[in-house]
Amino acid sequence: MSSALQLDVPELEEIIVPQLDEVEARLMEVVSNADETINPPTSHLAAAGGKRLRPMLVLLTAQLGDAAAACSQQVHDAAVAVELTHIATLYHDDVMDDAPKRRGAPSAQMVWGNSAAILTGDILVARASQMVAALGPDAVLAHARTFERLCTGQLHETLPRPEGVDPVDHYIQVLADKTGSLIALCGLYGTMLTGAGAKAQRIVELYGEKIGVAFQLADDVIDICSDSETTGKTPGTDLLEGVDTMPVLLLRQRLASGELDSAGQAILSLLSTGNLQRQQVLSDVVQRLRNHPVTAETRAMAGAWCDEAVAALADLDDAVVEATRTRLEAEGLSEAEVTQGVESARSRAQLVRRGLEDFAHLLVDRAA
Description:
CATH architecture of the domain at 11-194: Orthogonal Bundle
Order of helices and strands: HHHHEEHHHHHHHHHHHHH
Cofactor: Mg(2+)
Protein name: Polyprenyl synthetase
Radius of gyration: 22 Å
Mean pLDDT: 93
CATH superfamily of the domain at 11-194: Farnesyl Diphosphate Synthase
Distance between the termini: 26 Å
Number of strands: 2
CATH class of the domain at 11-194: Mainly Alpha
Number of helices: 17
Largest sheet: 2 strands, antiparallel
GO biological process, one term: isoprenoid biosynthetic process
Pfam family, one: polyprenyl_synt
Keywords: Magnesium, Metal-binding, Transferase
Structural class: mainly alpha
């Protein structure tokens, strides 16, 4: 199975796609290793598909370190663990949102009920934790901190926003916690497990968090502008669920500052008084939002966060070269061998940086 994202870096695709297939096989093994009662719910969402963006990012950033370690079982297990964690959050999200479908299939709680869906998510978190435990204490600590941020972000989204807190800033922090933190962990695992060095770790973590925010902002645009036949997403799903995504928050921000135009006021009025369960009303609101500048502004915000993520990679090549030289010299290699290893690392870092830049733009260009 290859990721839904096809990088325009053939040299990386040749390395990563076969590994993605191995990760996919391992993932399906891990979600189906209990009994005939437990296996159907635990394998339900994994079997329904998905882009596997997070495993792909683990494998991609692993190429920044030792070439042999990049293909190791540890790296593959880290890729499985982050995807298990992501899938577990989907089980819990669908219960909270009472979502009828996920990835084109009935959601778990529609098939087995809320209690079973919650417990299934818990089981997957437990299995991810067991896999991470084998990666060492640093990985365990990083995973625990990330899972806390996932939950913190969900709580901040669920509970009332404190008075005086800017709604747009609050929402960006929610996105950073709910989505950016786990994507950042992917980069951390890839570099940590292959000895790419502390500087490279910090760079790809920052990249991951920023691209996570960009990804979610792009999703906000897609929720309004998508063609359901091509994306599989029904336009206005977030509106129907009462979720204030960035375009709506920008409307409310303008209302609070006295700068909202009549078109925006009409949208907010429909959101508060209209029956969005009626398809005609929902379609009307979606169309009005498509035509309002706040949607284009959200698209621009996604692009800006993407640009920041790419800019964070500026020193990646030098960081990898420095760590590689230190590692090879510590191994007692000759100067010629060190030089050869450093040049190889530089070439790989340049390829990976291109891949990460492509990865970022592909995630955001979906909203173009």
